[in-house]
Amino acid sequence: MQKKKLSFWQIMTMNFGFFGVQFSFGLQQSNMSAIYKYLGASESELPLLWLAGPITGLIVQPIIGAISDGTWSPRFGRRKPFFLAGALIASIGLLIMPYSSSIWMAASLLWILDAANNIALEPYRAFISDKLPEKQYSFGFLVQSFFTGLGTTMANFTPAILVSFGILALSDKMDNGIPVSTYWAFGIGAVASIGTILVSVLTTSEYPPTPEELEALKKRKKEGNLIVTTVKEIYGAMKEMPKPMVQLIPVMFFPWYAMFCYWQYLTSALSLSLYDTLDQNTSFFNQAQLLTGNLNGTYNIICFMVAFALIPIARKFGAKRLHFFSLLLGGAALLIMPYLNDTDVLFTLPIGSGVTVSTIYLFAFGLGITWASMMAMPYQILASSIPSDKTGVYMGIFNMFIVIPMIIQIFSVQYFVYDLLGQNPINIIRLAGVFLIIGGIFTLFITSPKNED
Protein backbone atom coordinates (compact mmCIF):
# COMPACT_ATOMS: atom_id res chain seq x y z
CA MET A 1 0.00 0.00 0.00
CA GLN A 2 1.30 3.44 -0.97
CA LYS A 3 1.15 5.67 2.11
CA LYS A 4 0.63 9.41 1.75
CA LYS A 5 3.32 11.74 2.99
CA LEU A 6 1.82 13.61 5.94
CA SER A 7 2.32 17.28 6.77
CA PHE A 8 4.09 18.56 9.86
CA TRP A 9 0.81 19.33 11.64
CA GLN A 10 -0.78 16.01 10.71
CA ILE A 11 2.16 14.16 12.28
CA MET A 12 1.98 16.41 15.35
CA THR A 13 -1.75 15.80 15.77
CA MET A 14 -1.58 12.03 15.37
CA ASN A 15 1.07 11.92 18.11
CA PHE A 16 -0.56 14.43 20.47
CA GLY A 17 -1.92 11.64 22.67
CA PHE A 18 1.68 10.63 23.35
CA PHE A 19 1.89 13.81 25.45
CA GLY A 20 -0.78 12.52 27.84
CA VAL A 21 0.77 9.06 28.13
CA GLN A 22 4.17 10.56 28.93
CA PHE A 23 2.65 13.06 31.40
CA SER A 24 1.41 10.03 33.32
CA PHE A 25 4.79 8.27 33.14
CA GLY A 26 6.51 11.48 34.22
CA LEU A 27 4.39 11.74 37.35
CA GLN A 28 5.42 8.19 38.28
CA GLN A 29 9.11 8.77 37.62
CA SER A 30 9.38 11.86 39.81
CA ASN A 31 6.93 11.06 42.59
CA MET A 32 6.57 7.34 43.28
CA SER A 33 9.74 6.92 45.36
CA ALA A 34 8.74 9.93 47.46
CA ILE A 35 5.14 8.67 47.81
CA TYR A 36 6.42 5.29 49.02
CA LYS A 37 8.67 7.01 51.55
CA TYR A 38 5.84 9.22 52.82
CA LEU A 39 3.85 6.01 53.40
CA GLY A 40 6.71 4.47 55.40
CA ALA A 41 8.97 2.64 52.92
CA SER A 42 12.73 2.42 53.53
CA GLU A 43 15.47 3.13 50.97
CA SER A 44 16.26 -0.57 50.52
CA GLU A 45 12.60 -1.38 49.70
CA LEU A 46 12.29 1.11 46.82
CA PRO A 47 13.51 -1.10 43.92
CA LEU A 48 11.01 -3.90 44.63
CA LEU A 49 8.17 -1.38 44.95
CA TRP A 50 8.91 -0.24 41.38
CA LEU A 51 8.38 -3.78 40.05
CA ALA A 52 4.92 -2.94 38.65
CA GLY A 53 6.24 -1.03 35.62
CA PRO A 54 8.53 -3.62 34.06
CA ILE A 55 6.36 -6.63 34.85
CA THR A 56 3.23 -5.09 33.33
CA GLY A 57 5.24 -3.91 30.34
CA LEU A 58 6.73 -7.38 29.86
CA ILE A 59 3.29 -9.00 29.85
CA VAL A 60 1.05 -6.32 28.35
CA GLN A 61 3.01 -4.84 25.44
CA PRO A 62 3.75 -7.98 23.37
CA ILE A 63 0.17 -9.19 23.88
CA ILE A 64 -1.38 -5.83 22.99
CA GLY A 65 0.97 -5.54 20.01
CA ALA A 66 -0.04 -8.94 18.64
CA ILE A 67 -3.76 -8.37 19.32
CA SER A 68 -3.73 -4.92 17.70
CA ASP A 69 -1.99 -6.34 14.61
CA GLY A 70 -4.96 -8.70 14.25
CA THR A 71 -7.64 -6.10 15.03
CA TRP A 72 -9.71 -4.05 12.62
CA SER A 73 -12.98 -2.18 13.08
CA PRO A 74 -14.34 0.00 10.24
CA ARG A 75 -15.64 2.37 12.92
CA PHE A 76 -12.86 2.41 15.52
CA GLY A 77 -9.77 1.34 13.56
CA ARG A 78 -6.87 -0.87 14.63
CA ARG A 79 -4.77 0.99 17.21
CA LYS A 80 -7.16 3.71 18.44
CA PRO A 81 -9.36 1.48 20.64
CA PHE A 82 -6.26 0.61 22.67
CA PHE A 83 -5.29 4.30 22.99
CA LEU A 84 -8.70 5.10 24.45
CA ALA A 85 -8.96 2.15 26.82
CA GLY A 86 -5.47 2.71 28.22
CA ALA A 87 -5.96 6.46 28.69
CA LEU A 88 -9.29 6.04 30.46
CA ILE A 89 -7.96 3.49 32.97
CA ALA A 90 -4.79 5.58 33.51
CA SER A 91 -6.85 8.68 34.27
CA ILE A 92 -8.78 6.83 36.98
CA GLY A 93 -5.54 5.49 38.48
CA LEU A 94 -3.99 8.97 38.55
CA LEU A 95 -6.99 10.42 40.37
CA ILE A 96 -6.90 7.75 43.09
CA MET A 97 -3.10 7.49 43.63
CA PRO A 98 -2.67 10.51 45.99
CA TYR A 99 -5.33 9.03 48.31
CA SER A 100 -3.18 5.93 48.95
CA SER A 101 -3.38 5.02 52.64
CA SER A 102 -0.63 2.38 52.63
CA ILE A 103 2.37 1.16 50.67
CA TRP A 104 0.47 -1.84 49.28
CA MET A 105 -2.35 0.43 48.03
CA ALA A 106 0.10 2.72 46.22
CA ALA A 107 1.94 -0.29 44.77
CA SER A 108 -1.34 -1.87 43.60
CA LEU A 109 -2.42 1.37 41.93
CA LEU A 110 0.96 1.60 40.23
CA TRP A 111 0.37 -1.86 38.71
CA ILE A 112 -2.96 -0.69 37.31
CA LEU A 113 -1.54 2.63 36.13
CA ASP A 114 1.42 1.02 34.40
CA ALA A 115 -0.76 -1.58 32.69
CA ALA A 116 -3.03 1.18 31.39
CA ASN A 117 -0.15 3.31 30.13
CA ASN A 118 1.38 0.29 28.38
CA ILE A 119 -1.94 -0.51 26.69
CA ALA A 120 -1.91 2.99 25.19
CA LEU A 121 1.84 3.21 24.55
CA GLU A 122 2.57 0.07 22.53
CA PRO A 123 0.08 0.72 19.70
CA TYR A 124 1.40 4.28 19.48
CA ARG A 125 4.81 2.98 18.43
CA ALA A 126 3.18 0.81 15.75
CA PHE A 127 1.02 3.78 14.69
CA ILE A 128 4.10 5.44 13.14
CA SER A 129 4.77 2.49 10.84
CA ASP A 130 1.05 2.17 10.05
CA LYS A 131 0.55 5.78 8.98
CA LEU A 132 3.85 7.10 7.65
CA PRO A 133 5.96 6.23 4.60
CA GLU A 134 9.39 4.94 5.58
CA LYS A 135 11.12 8.24 4.73
CA GLN A 136 9.12 9.90 7.52
CA TYR A 137 9.91 7.32 10.23
CA SER A 138 12.68 9.47 11.75
CA PHE A 139 10.41 12.49 11.87
CA GLY A 140 7.52 10.48 13.35
CA PHE A 141 9.57 8.92 16.14
CA LEU A 142 11.32 12.21 16.94
CA VAL A 143 7.92 13.89 17.24
CA GLN A 144 7.17 11.23 19.84
CA SER A 145 10.46 12.21 21.51
CA PHE A 146 9.27 15.81 21.46
CA PHE A 147 5.99 14.91 23.19
CA THR A 148 7.85 12.59 25.57
CA GLY A 149 9.96 15.54 26.66
CA LEU A 150 7.08 18.01 26.76
CA GLY A 151 4.69 15.69 28.62
CA THR A 152 7.26 14.61 31.19
CA THR A 153 8.44 18.21 31.61
CA MET A 154 4.94 19.40 32.46
CA ALA A 155 4.49 16.46 34.85
CA ASN A 156 7.76 17.20 36.63
CA PHE A 157 7.33 20.95 36.92
CA THR A 158 3.65 21.01 37.90
CA PRO A 159 4.18 20.53 41.69
CA ALA A 160 7.00 23.12 41.73
CA ILE A 161 4.88 25.61 39.75
CA LEU A 162 1.98 25.21 42.18
CA VAL A 163 4.34 25.93 45.10
CA SER A 164 6.45 28.64 43.42
CA PHE A 165 3.45 30.75 42.42
CA GLY A 166 1.98 30.57 45.90
CA ILE A 167 -1.02 28.46 44.89
CA LEU A 168 0.01 25.85 47.46
CA ALA A 169 2.57 25.79 50.27
CA LEU A 170 5.46 23.33 50.41
CA SER A 171 4.27 22.27 53.86
CA ASP A 172 0.65 21.57 52.78
CA LYS A 173 0.08 17.83 53.16
CA MET A 174 -2.82 15.42 53.02
CA ASP A 175 -3.72 13.15 55.95
CA ASN A 176 -1.48 10.36 54.56
CA GLY A 177 1.56 12.68 54.45
CA ILE A 178 1.57 13.13 50.67
CA PRO A 179 1.97 16.81 49.65
CA VAL A 180 -1.15 18.55 48.35
CA SER A 181 0.91 19.70 45.34
CA THR A 182 1.35 16.03 44.39
CA TYR A 183 -2.43 15.53 44.59
CA TRP A 184 -3.10 18.41 42.19
CA ALA A 185 -0.35 17.31 39.80
CA PHE A 186 -1.89 13.82 39.52
CA GLY A 187 -5.33 15.35 38.92
CA ILE A 188 -3.98 17.52 36.10
CA GLY A 189 -2.28 14.42 34.69
CA ALA A 190 -5.60 12.56 34.63
CA VAL A 191 -7.17 15.30 32.48
CA ALA A 192 -4.12 15.39 30.18
CA SER A 193 -4.13 11.60 29.75
CA ILE A 194 -7.65 11.26 28.37
CA GLY A 195 -7.88 14.72 26.76
CA THR A 196 -4.85 14.46 24.48
CA ILE A 197 -5.70 10.91 23.40
CA LEU A 198 -9.16 12.10 22.35
CA VAL A 199 -7.57 14.76 20.13
CA SER A 200 -5.50 12.13 18.29
CA VAL A 201 -8.38 9.67 18.02
CA LEU A 202 -10.85 12.23 16.69
CA THR A 203 -8.50 13.89 14.16
CA THR A 204 -6.53 10.93 12.76
CA SER A 205 -7.83 8.13 10.57
CA GLU A 206 -6.23 4.72 10.05
CA TYR A 207 -5.54 2.94 6.78
CA PRO A 208 -7.96 0.04 6.24
CA PRO A 209 -6.41 -3.39 5.70
CA THR A 210 -5.68 -4.54 2.16
CA PRO A 211 -7.86 -7.38 0.79
CA GLU A 212 -5.03 -9.80 1.61
CA GLU A 213 -4.79 -8.49 5.18
CA LEU A 214 -8.55 -8.71 5.61
CA GLU A 215 -8.47 -12.31 4.48
CA ALA A 216 -5.70 -13.03 7.02
CA LEU A 217 -7.76 -11.36 9.78
CA LYS A 218 -10.80 -13.48 8.91
CA LYS A 219 -8.66 -16.61 8.96
CA ARG A 220 -7.32 -15.64 12.36
CA LYS A 221 -10.83 -15.20 13.74
CA LYS A 222 -11.83 -18.63 12.42
CA GLU A 223 -8.90 -20.19 14.25
CA GLY A 224 -10.70 -19.31 17.45
CA ASN A 225 -8.61 -19.12 20.62
CA LEU A 226 -7.19 -15.59 20.70
CA ILE A 227 -4.72 -16.34 23.49
CA VAL A 228 -3.22 -19.38 21.72
CA THR A 229 -2.99 -17.50 18.41
CA THR A 230 -1.37 -14.50 20.10
CA VAL A 231 1.21 -16.63 21.91
CA LYS A 232 2.05 -18.44 18.65
CA GLU A 233 2.55 -15.12 16.85
CA ILE A 234 4.81 -13.78 19.59
CA TYR A 235 6.86 -17.00 19.67
CA GLY A 236 7.17 -17.11 15.87
CA ALA A 237 8.24 -13.48 15.69
CA MET A 238 10.87 -14.01 18.38
CA LYS A 239 12.34 -16.96 16.46
CA GLU A 240 12.60 -14.84 13.31
CA MET A 241 13.98 -11.63 14.84
CA PRO A 242 16.04 -9.63 12.33
CA LYS A 243 19.78 -9.35 13.12
CA PRO A 244 19.72 -5.59 13.89
CA MET A 245 16.97 -6.22 16.43
CA VAL A 246 19.07 -8.88 18.18
CA GLN A 247 22.05 -6.49 18.20
CA LEU A 248 19.89 -3.86 19.91
CA ILE A 249 19.53 -6.03 23.05
CA PRO A 250 22.66 -4.74 24.89
CA VAL A 251 22.06 -1.25 23.47
CA MET A 252 18.73 -1.24 25.28
CA PHE A 253 19.78 -3.25 28.36
CA PHE A 254 22.44 -0.97 29.84
CA PRO A 255 20.71 2.42 29.32
CA TRP A 256 17.35 1.21 30.66
CA TYR A 257 19.00 -0.40 33.69
CA ALA A 258 20.67 2.98 34.19
CA MET A 259 17.48 5.03 33.85
CA PHE A 260 15.65 2.87 36.39
CA CYS A 261 18.53 3.44 38.84
CA TYR A 262 18.23 7.16 38.16
CA TRP A 263 14.45 7.39 38.64
CA GLN A 264 14.48 5.32 41.82
CA TYR A 265 17.36 7.01 43.60
CA LEU A 266 17.67 10.58 42.33
CA THR A 267 15.61 12.14 45.16
CA SER A 268 17.58 10.26 47.82
CA ALA A 269 20.91 11.00 46.08
CA LEU A 270 20.09 14.72 45.93
CA SER A 271 18.94 14.79 49.54
CA LEU A 272 22.20 13.13 50.64
CA SER A 273 24.51 14.99 48.27
CA LEU A 274 23.09 18.49 48.78
CA TYR A 275 21.57 18.39 52.27
CA ASP A 276 23.36 15.45 53.94
CA THR A 277 20.15 13.69 55.03
CA LEU A 278 17.91 10.80 54.00
CA ASP A 279 15.17 11.61 56.53
CA GLN A 280 11.88 12.00 54.62
CA ASN A 281 10.37 13.95 57.54
CA THR A 282 12.68 16.92 57.03
CA SER A 283 12.06 19.95 54.83
CA PHE A 284 15.36 19.12 53.09
CA PHE A 285 13.91 15.88 51.73
CA ASN A 286 10.79 17.77 50.55
CA GLN A 287 13.10 20.22 48.81
CA ALA A 288 14.98 17.32 47.18
CA GLN A 289 11.66 15.95 45.88
CA LEU A 290 10.78 19.31 44.30
CA LEU A 291 14.31 19.58 42.89
CA THR A 292 13.91 16.08 41.40
CA GLY A 293 10.86 17.32 39.52
CA ASN A 294 12.72 20.42 38.34
CA LEU A 295 15.75 18.43 37.16
CA ASN A 296 13.63 15.81 35.42
CA GLY A 297 11.61 18.62 33.89
CA THR A 298 14.83 20.24 32.69
CA TYR A 299 16.15 17.14 30.96
CA ASN A 300 12.78 16.74 29.29
CA ILE A 301 12.79 20.39 28.19
CA ILE A 302 16.13 19.69 26.54
CA CYS A 303 14.60 16.51 25.08
CA PHE A 304 11.76 18.27 23.28
CA MET A 305 13.96 21.25 22.32
CA VAL A 306 16.57 19.08 20.59
CA ALA A 307 14.19 16.42 19.20
CA PHE A 308 13.68 18.24 15.90
CA ALA A 309 17.34 19.34 15.77
CA LEU A 310 18.36 15.67 15.86
CA ILE A 311 16.51 14.94 12.59
CA PRO A 312 19.14 16.39 10.20
CA ILE A 313 21.94 14.96 12.40
CA ALA A 314 20.40 11.48 12.19
CA ARG A 315 20.08 11.85 8.42
CA LYS A 316 23.68 12.95 8.01
CA PHE A 317 25.48 10.60 10.40
CA GLY A 318 22.97 7.75 10.84
CA ALA A 319 20.91 6.70 13.83
CA LYS A 320 23.52 4.49 15.49
CA ARG A 321 26.30 7.12 15.49
CA LEU A 322 23.96 9.72 16.91
CA HIS A 323 22.79 7.28 19.57
CA PHE A 324 26.39 6.45 20.55
CA PHE A 325 27.25 10.10 21.09
CA SER A 326 24.02 10.77 22.99
CA LEU A 327 24.53 7.90 25.45
CA LEU A 328 28.16 8.91 25.98
CA LEU A 329 27.06 12.44 26.85
CA GLY A 330 24.38 11.26 29.30
CA GLY A 331 26.76 8.86 31.03
CA ALA A 332 29.32 11.61 31.58
CA ALA A 333 26.54 13.89 32.89
CA LEU A 334 25.46 11.41 35.57
CA LEU A 335 29.06 10.78 36.62
CA ILE A 336 29.58 14.48 37.39
CA MET A 337 26.22 14.90 39.17
CA PRO A 338 27.56 14.27 42.73
CA TYR A 339 30.10 17.09 42.28
CA LEU A 340 27.46 19.74 41.46
CA ASN A 341 25.44 21.86 43.89
CA ASP A 342 22.36 24.07 44.07
CA THR A 343 24.15 27.18 45.42
CA ASP A 344 26.56 28.18 42.64
CA VAL A 345 24.52 30.05 40.02
CA LEU A 346 24.99 29.36 36.32
CA PHE A 347 22.59 32.04 35.07
CA THR A 348 19.29 33.72 35.91
CA LEU A 349 16.18 33.38 33.76
CA PRO A 350 14.21 36.63 33.28
CA ILE A 351 10.96 35.18 34.64
CA GLY A 352 9.15 37.23 37.30
CA SER A 353 11.75 38.49 39.75
CA GLY A 354 14.28 36.11 38.19
CA VAL A 355 14.72 32.34 38.37
CA THR A 356 18.25 31.22 39.24
CA VAL A 357 19.69 28.08 37.62
CA SER A 358 22.41 26.42 39.70
CA THR A 359 25.21 24.07 38.62
CA ILE A 360 23.19 20.98 39.60
CA TYR A 361 21.19 21.53 36.39
CA LEU A 362 24.26 20.89 34.23
CA PHE A 363 23.82 17.12 34.30
CA ALA A 364 20.17 17.46 33.23
CA PHE A 365 21.24 19.23 30.03
CA GLY A 366 23.33 16.25 28.92
CA LEU A 367 20.74 13.72 30.03
CA GLY A 368 18.09 15.50 27.94
CA ILE A 369 19.98 14.77 24.71
CA THR A 370 20.38 11.16 25.82
CA TRP A 371 16.64 10.84 26.50
CA ALA A 372 15.66 12.34 23.13
CA SER A 373 17.84 9.77 21.38
CA MET A 374 16.60 6.85 23.53
CA MET A 375 13.01 7.71 22.61
CA ALA A 376 13.68 7.73 18.86
CA MET A 377 16.88 6.24 17.43
CA PRO A 378 16.46 2.58 18.52
CA TYR A 379 12.90 2.63 17.15
CA GLN A 380 14.09 4.01 13.82
CA ILE A 381 16.68 1.23 13.55
CA LEU A 382 14.01 -1.32 14.50
CA ALA A 383 11.28 0.01 12.17
CA SER A 384 13.67 -0.16 9.23
CA SER A 385 14.43 -3.84 9.83
CA ILE A 386 11.07 -5.50 10.62
CA PRO A 387 8.24 -6.62 8.29
CA SER A 388 5.40 -4.09 8.11
CA ASP A 389 2.67 -6.67 8.74
CA LYS A 390 4.22 -7.55 12.12
CA THR A 391 4.96 -4.06 13.38
CA GLY A 392 2.74 -4.33 16.44
CA VAL A 393 4.07 -7.65 17.69
CA TYR A 394 7.71 -6.67 17.09
CA MET A 395 7.23 -3.31 18.84
CA GLY A 396 5.73 -5.27 21.74
CA ILE A 397 8.64 -7.72 21.81
CA PHE A 398 11.05 -4.80 21.58
CA ASN A 399 9.56 -3.47 24.80
CA MET A 400 10.94 -6.60 26.49
CA PHE A 401 14.37 -5.12 25.80
CA ILE A 402 13.31 -2.28 28.10
CA VAL A 403 11.42 -4.06 30.87
CA ILE A 404 13.71 -7.09 31.33
CA PRO A 405 16.64 -4.78 32.24
CA MET A 406 14.30 -3.04 34.69
CA ILE A 407 13.31 -6.34 36.32
CA ILE A 408 16.97 -7.38 36.57
CA GLN A 409 17.78 -3.96 38.02
CA ILE A 410 15.08 -4.27 40.66
CA PHE A 411 16.23 -7.62 42.01
CA SER A 412 19.96 -6.99 41.62
CA VAL A 413 19.82 -3.62 43.37
CA GLN A 414 17.38 -4.87 46.03
CA TYR A 415 19.41 -7.91 47.03
CA PHE A 416 22.98 -7.23 45.93
CA VAL A 417 24.04 -4.00 44.23
CA TYR A 418 22.75 -1.51 46.85
CA ASP A 419 24.77 -3.23 49.59
CA LEU A 420 27.79 -3.68 47.30
CA LEU A 421 27.83 0.08 46.64
CA GLY A 422 27.87 0.92 50.33
CA GLN A 423 24.09 1.51 50.63
CA ASN A 424 24.76 4.90 49.11
CA PRO A 425 22.20 6.33 46.61
CA ILE A 426 24.90 8.54 45.10
CA ASN A 427 26.86 5.45 44.01
CA ILE A 428 23.74 4.10 42.30
CA ILE A 429 23.66 7.28 40.18
CA ARG A 430 27.35 6.78 39.33
CA LEU A 431 26.60 3.20 38.25
CA ALA A 432 23.85 4.55 35.98
CA GLY A 433 26.37 6.85 34.30
CA VAL A 434 28.76 3.97 33.60
CA PHE A 435 25.96 1.83 32.15
CA LEU A 436 24.85 4.59 29.76
CA ILE A 437 28.39 4.73 28.36
CA ILE A 438 28.53 0.93 27.96
CA GLY A 439 25.21 1.01 26.07
CA GLY A 440 26.66 3.66 23.74
CA ILE A 441 29.67 1.49 22.94
CA PHE A 442 27.43 -1.46 21.99
CA THR A 443 25.56 0.83 19.58
CA LEU A 444 28.59 0.96 17.32
CA PHE A 445 28.35 -2.79 16.65
CA ILE A 446 24.83 -2.71 15.15
CA THR A 447 24.58 -3.79 11.52
CA SER A 448 22.60 -0.89 10.10
CA PRO A 449 19.74 -1.74 7.73
CA LYS A 450 20.63 -0.74 4.20
CA ASN A 451 17.78 1.81 4.12
CA GLU A 452 18.38 3.20 7.63
CA ASP A 453 19.76 6.54 6.40
Question: Overview of this structure, please?
Answer:
Helix content is 72%, strand content 2%. By secondary structure, it is an all-alpha fold. It has one domain: MFS general substrate transporter like domains (Growth Hormone, Chain: A), CATH 1.20.1250. The chain has a two-stranded antiparallel ribbon with strand order 1-2. The radius of gyration is 21 Å and the shape is globular.
Mean pLDDT: 84
- How large is the radius of gyration? 21 Å
- Which structural class do you get from the secondary structure elements? mainly alpha
The CATH homologous superfamily is called MFS general substrate transporter like domains
Order of helices and strands: HHHHHHHHHHHHHHEEHHHH
Hey, roughly how much beta strand do the residues contain? under 5%
Give start-end ranges of low-pLDDT stretches: none
In short:
It contains 18 helices and two strands.
Write the layout of secondary structure elements.
Blueprint: H1 8-14, H2 17-38, H3 46-49, H4 52-69, H5 80-96, H6 103-131, H7 137-164, H8 180-203, H9 211-223, H10 226-239, H11 243-275, H12 283-306, H13 310-317, H14 319-336, E1 345-349, E2 355-358, H15 362-374, H16 377-383, H17 391-420, H18 425-443
Antiparallel strand pairs: 1-2
Helix pairs in contact: 2-5, 2-6, 2-7, 2-8, 2-11, 2-12, 4-6, 4-10, 4-17, 5-6, 5-8, 6-17, 7-8, 7-12, 7-15, 7-16, 11-12, 11-17, 11-18, 12-15, 13-14, 14-15, 14-16, 14-18
